[in-house]
Write a structure and sequence with these properties.
Keywords: ATP-binding, Cell membrane, Membrane, Nucleotide-binding, Transport. With about 280 residues, the chain is α/β, with parallel strands linked by helices. It is built from seven helices and eleven strands.
């Protein structure tokens, strides 16, 4: 396993130290994950990763390295060639009602209102049975959480890009999942809207005490929201490094600390190239 680093280590030193603090029991733990295309070309090899309640883990890496493939495996949407995934200590081999996934495209159903799109997530397979009152309460809470109470009757074509992404997030929240898997959900948004969505993600994780795995190629986004950053790289992909980010939110006043971590991440990528792992630059 690659070493972990603490953001606070950069406040007095440019060299990160190993983190040795004990962790709470993870919600989700994956060990030795491997994945390959049907042709036999390996995508992932011996990847270990964990998620804990109330934390955001960002997975960084160049385009095409296997970040989205890793997300699909962890979410039970794709079976690994090797390795084990456990959700609260129980083996996971298929989609689970406590796991919710949001992709870069909101994928709202165009013939349904925003409210009915949010409700649609409650009809997914293996969802628990809810009374009409419980169902509506979940829908209302999710819509209010993302700030779309006044837009619940709008159709998808009447929503801005940011509103559509909020609706997609609300659809996940209505299921009250323990883990959110987010596959570059803010990549197509303008900078101001993207920052607003990042702030919303921080709020949602805090309010729901969920865990979130955020796939991104944007180092600044990872530094802005993540409690841990995992760098994926190589062919096949493996973990090149892991950084613990203990900076408080908002992080706008910690430019120097974030800059130091950015340098470490880029250095890890360059070192991987020098040692023969052919990965493109970020």
């Amino acid at each position: 396993m690659s070493p972990s680093h603490r953001a606070s280590d950069f406040r007095h030193s440019s060299t990160a130290t190993l983190a040795n603090e004990p962790y709470a029991q993870p919600l989700l733990a994956a060990r030795g994950l491997a994945l390959a295309y049907e042709s036999g070309l390996a995508i992932l090899q011996d990847v270990d990763i964990s998620l804990r309640s109330g934390e955001i883990v960002a997975v960084l890496g160049p385009s095409g390295v296997g970040k989205s493939s890793l997300l699909r495996v962890l979410a039970g949407l794709r079976k690994p060639a090797r390795g084990q995934i456990e959700l609260e200590g129980v083996a996971l081999s298929r989609p689970h009602p406590q796991l919710a996934v949001a992709f870069q495209a909101p994928a709202l159903l165009p013939w349904l209102t925003l409210e009915k799109n949010v409700a649609f997530g409650l009809d997914f397979k293996h969802q628990p049975e809810l009374s009409r009152t419980e169902r509506q309460a979940r829908i209302d809470q999710a819509i209010e959480e993302v700030g779309l109470g006044a837009a619940r009757r709008l159709m998808p074509h009447e929503l801005s890009g940011g509103m559509a992404q909020r609706a997609a997030l609300a659809r996940c929240l209505a299921r009250q999942p323990k883990i959110l898997f987010l596959d570059e959900p803010f990549g197509a948004l303008d900078e101001i809207t993207r920052e607003s969505m990042q702030d919303l993600l921080l709020k949602v994780v805090r309010d729901y005490q969920a865990a979130a795995l955020l796939i991104t190629h944007d180092i600044d986004e990872a530094l802005r929201v993540a409690d841990r950053i995992i760098l994926l790289g190589g062919r096949p992909a493996n973990t090149l490094g892991e950084w613990l980010i203990d900076l408080p939110h908002p992080r706008d006043d910690f430019i120097a600390e974030q800059g130091a971590i950015r340098i470490q991440i880029l250095s890890a990528l360059r070192q991987a190239q020098l040692t023969g792992q052919p990965i493109p630059s970020l």
